[in-house]
Amino acid sequence: MTVHQLRPRTPAESALIEIAADGETGAASQAAVEALRREGLPHRRIEAWHYTDLRNLMGRQAETAVQPAADASGAILAPLLAGSHVVDFDAPDAGHALNGLTVARSAETADWQTTPNHLDRGLDTVRMLNAAFGASAVDVAVASGVALAAPVELRARAGSRSHGFVRCTVGAGATATFVERLEGEGAPSTGVSHLEIRAGARVTWIVDQEKGASASHLGQLNVTVGEGALFTLFVLNAGGALVRYEVHAQTAGEGAEIKIRGINLLEAGQHIDVTTTLRHTFENTKATETFRNILTGGRGVFQGMIKVAREAQKTDAKMACNTLLLADDGEFLAKPELEIFADDVQCGHGATAGEINPDHLFYLMSRGIPEPIARALLVKAFVAEVVEELEDEAVEDALMQRIDAWLARSH
C-alpha cells in the first residue's frame, strides 16, 4: 500500500480552487479542477518551480486577492500599435476582419489533457489552471502566402477575470505580427496559446505585460516553427505582483529560426519569472535568446533551457541573461541550461549581473551631464539595444514608450 502525505492547503490556495470549481463549465474544466484538488499548487521541491514557489507565493496573497474583480467589464485599452486588429477575449468577434485573417470563437474550452504538452513532465500547472477556469478557446488563422496589413492584438479587458486559450495557425509563406496584451488589477489571470508556424512563414509575437501591483498572471506560449520559418518573440514584463510566463518552442523543419528577446523591469514587491525551453529536432536550425533585466527591487527569475536532439546537427543556439541591479534589495536568479546530444553544434549561454559602470557614468558627467540624467541614459541604453533588434520602427517606438514610462515612474 502506498501512502501519500497530503499537504495542508493555504487559504488562498483553497480559495483559488473553489473559484475555479464555481465557474466550472464542462467536462474538461471539471477534470482540471479535480486534478488541481489532487495535486495542489507547485512548490519549491518541484524543480521547475524551485524559484517560484507558487503555493507559498499564492499563500502570501490575501484571500481577497484571488477573488474576481467586481467590475468584469473593465476599461477598454487603446491598442499598443496604432491600426491593430483587436481580438477581445471577453467579446471576440468572428469573420474576416483583415484580408487573410480568420478569427472565431470556439464552443470548446481549454482541455489540458488533450492539448500538446511540450514539457518533460506530465503535470503542467499553467495549462491545468487555465483549463480549470474554463478558458474559452479562440481560433486564429492566417492564410498561406498572406502578409497581414496590420498587427493582431490579443487581449482581455482590464479588470476582467481573464483566462484565454488561443489556437493560432500561420500558413506557409505568410507574414504576421501578434501582440499579447496583459493588463489589469484584481483576479488572477491565465493565458495559454498554441502557435503553429508553417514552412517559410515569418511571425513576430510581442508580449506586453503590465498587470497591476496586486495582480497575478500565469501565461504559456507553445510554438512549433516550420521548415525555413522565422519566429521572433519579444517579452516586456513591467508590472504584476506575481507573474510567470513560460515559452516552449521547438523546430519542426530544417532551417527554422527562433529569436527571443525580452526585458524584465522589476520594482519592490514584484516576483517575475520567465521560463523558456527551446527544442532543436532538425538539422541546420538556429536560436538566439537575450534577456535584459533592470531591478529597483523585487525578485526576478530566468530559467532557460536549450535542448538539442541527436539528429539536430549544425544547430546554432545561444542564450544570454544580463541584469542591471539599481538597488541593494533587488534579487535576480538566472538558470541557463544546455542539453546536447548532437556532436556538431555551436551552443552557448551566459549570465551577468552588476551595477552601472562607474567609468561610463564618469564619462557622461565629465561632459556636463548631471548625474541623474547620465544614470537614466545608461539604464535606457542597456535595454534599448535589445528593442532595436526588432527592426520595426513602429514596434520599437511603442515599446520604448512603455519602457520610458516605467523608468520615469521608478526613478
Describe this structure in words.
Strands 1-4-6-8-10-12-14-16-18 form a 9-stranded parallel beta sheet, with helices on one face. It has a 9-stranded mixed beta sheet with strand order 2-3-5-7-9-11-13-15-17, covered by helices on one side. The protein has helices at residues 11-22, 27-39, 54-60, 125-132, 358-365, 371-388, 393-410, and strands spanning 85-88, 101-109, 136-142, 152-155, 163-170, 175-184, 189-197, 202-211, 216-226, 230-237, 242-252, 257-266, 271-280, 286-295, 299-308, 316-325, 331-340, 346-354. The protein contains 7 helices and 18 strands. The model is unreliable at 68-73 (pLDDT under 50). The protein starts with 10 loop residues before the first helix and ends with a helix. The radius of gyration is 21 Å and the shape is globular. By secondary structure, the protein is α/β, with parallel strands linked by helices.
Summary of the model, kept short:
With 411 residues, the chain is an alpha/beta fold. It has helices at 11-22, 27-39, 54-60, 125-132, 358-365, 371-388, 393-410, and strands at 85-88, 101-109, 136-142, 152-155, 163-170, 175-184, 189-197, 202-211, 216-226, 230-237, 242-252, 257-266, 271-280, 286-295, 299-308, 316-325, 331-340, 346-354. The strands form two sheets. Strands 1-4-6-8-10-12-14-16-18 form a nine-stranded parallel β-sheet, covered by helices on one side.
Considering the chains and any ligands shown, give keywords for the structure.
nine-stranded parallel beta sheet; alpha/beta; nine-stranded mixed beta sheet; 7 helices; single chain; 411 residues; 20% helix
